Structures are given as structure tokens and as C-alpha cells.
């Protein structure tokens, strides 16, 4: 039997999703192609895909409740660890926790990171990147300009002394360095002065004076630490991203890198709190990467030691990580004190029962139809077979469901049921 390729493709090209799946009372194929949670999915989707294990669901609710509404403002820290085999839904649970946190009245800043990197500095760089490079620069610059304008210091007068007309009026009111437009960022502010200073030497002196003032402001805000201050200065004054290596920002080999991470996280939290946020959450996925052989024993020991220091010394954050049980056991062998700190709360996800698989299928089907308890087009036997063949792993279940629904849309007639035989036919494809 020959295959009419043109007929197949033409039929598919001329059918909408709704036309293809209306035979199943669906508007589209609701299952994810990859079987994994979409980190960019809408909060409504995340809300619908709640944990199907009631115990796990309650544990994640308790973690959010106890951390978000704690009255201990000076010690907000709560560390939680989600464990489970590959494909059991750890990412989905992290995203559900993010949804819960962000949909309460308490104003919380939540960052999701899907890879912690091999150095703590990379983790901190990811935090800044998630805040948004330009947004973070704006936060830093606002801190600087607000301090420069305070009457309690002489920064403003020191800068204005470089102008012939100290009110910035030499070339019209639009050239006032302290106008709203010129205060918008470091470059605009600097140019507003330099455009009115004709002497090259004075221009150089002004640039150095402004730099010195900015560094003093950052040092005051960050425990007089020149490395952190220089890092922040370079972020707002130069045209490079937040992932520029510390070895370049600091001079030499970067050997002071990781022992600055605590201070840098502290500075970031200060900035976030200054924007009105009451809590700071870091959700880290795939934490097992630090045990996957990417690090030497020396590097792994250093990572564990510095992460312990970060957890112990900074109390104004909440951390929720996800990793496999095997990885957690590996960390326990090399650093029991770190595991002790990572498991204030441990939430373990088990593999699926047939009943739980049915609930997951219902949740996804209801994304593409009016909510119902009907598992049509699947038979009970089809679901039981699918769960067993998928080794009771949600990721594999969902990935196979997407493919099976595509084939069912092509081959089955109206009101046909997806049977165990149909699932078996396509499961290995």
C-alpha cells in the first residue's frame, strides 16, 4: 500500500486544532510534547495542575505558609528540598510553589533558576539575570542618585562645582544634570555634566570624582566592601552583562570570589527590600548537577562549604531546591552538615499510582474543555497500561499522552475510545 504524502499533509494543513480534537470534546491536544513542566506557562495553568499527591500538596502549602507569614522579620530563612526520581514532577512542584507565593497578599520577590551552575558566583549571577539586567542596574542607580541628592552630604555640591553655572543653566534649563531625564541612568547623568565642561582635564577629574562618590555610596551600603562596590559600579557604568566573570571584575585570579557571595546576596536582598518586597525566595531546579561529576572533589567540597556559609550568614531569604534522592544521598556522604541545612523541610515525590495517573490526565484534559470528571476519550484499561509501561513516571506518561492523542485525532472516529490496545500500538513509537 502506497502512502499518499500530499493527501496527508494537505488534510493536516487545512485542519485547525479545534477541528481535529472536537471529536473528543477538546479544543486542542492538552498534553505537553516533552512531558515536562513549562517554566514559562501562565499562572492559571500552574494553578490547575496542582500536586495530585495530597500529602505532597499539603507539605508545599505548609512550606509557603510558614515562610511567607513568619513574624520573625530578622530571621526569615526557611530551606526546603524537593526530592524524587527523574521525571516525577519536581519542576512542576517548584513552579506550583512559585504560583502559591506570588498569589498571596504578602509582597514577595520569587526567582526560579533551572540550573545552579558549578560555582556560587554563577548562582548569584543567575539571580541578577532573573531580576533583569537593566532592572537591576536601575535599582542600583536609583540608590546612587537618591544618596547624591540628600542634603545630609555634600555630593551634589561637589559635582556642581565643576560647572561654570552651578545650576546647570549655561545652555538652558534642559541641561540641568538633575532634571528627571538626566537622572534616569549613569550615562545620561554623566553626559549632562561633561557636555558643559569644556576643559579636558576637568572632564577627567569630574569623571573620577563621580566614580569616587558612587563607590563610597556602594561601600556604605555594603559593609565597606570594595570588591562588591566595584562590581556594582561596573554594572551601572559599563556596557557589559551581569555574567561578566568575577575574575575580570576583581583583579588577579578571583580567589576571593566565593567568600564575597554572602555579601553580594545581602546587597541584592537590600536592593529588593528597598523596592518594597517583604520576602525573597530562590527556587533552584536540577540541583543534582553539582554531584554529576562536573566538579572535582576539591571544588565540590568548596561549593558545599560556601553554600553552608551562605545559608548560615544570610537570614533574610527562603530557598527551595529540587534534586533526585540519589543526589541528596551523594551530598550527604560528602557533607552531612550541608544536607542538614538543606532539609529544614524535605518533600519527597513518589512514583504514580493508577489513580494518580487518572487524576493527572483529568487535570490536563480540563485545560482544553469545560471542567469534567469524565476521562473520555481514555478507557480505565488504557490508563493502567500507560502508567505501567511508563514506569509510573509523570514525565514519560505525559510525553506518551501527547503522541497518542495526535494519533487518535488522525485515526479514530467520533466517540471512539482510546483503548489499551491503541495505547500499546503506539507506546514504543
UniProtKB/TrEMBL annotation:
Annotated keywords: ATP-binding, Nucleotide-binding
High-level lineage: Bacteria, Pseudomonadati, Bacteroidota, Flavobacteriia, Flavobacteriales
InterPro entries linked to this entry: BrxD, ExeA_AAA_ATPase_DNA-bind, P-loop_NTPase
The protein's name: ATP-binding protein
GO molecular function annotation: ATP binding
Keyword check for Cell membrane: no
Classification via SUPFAM superfamilies: P-loop containing nucleoside triphosphate hydrolases (SSF52540)
Organism superkingdom: Bacteria
Species of origin: Polaribacter marinus
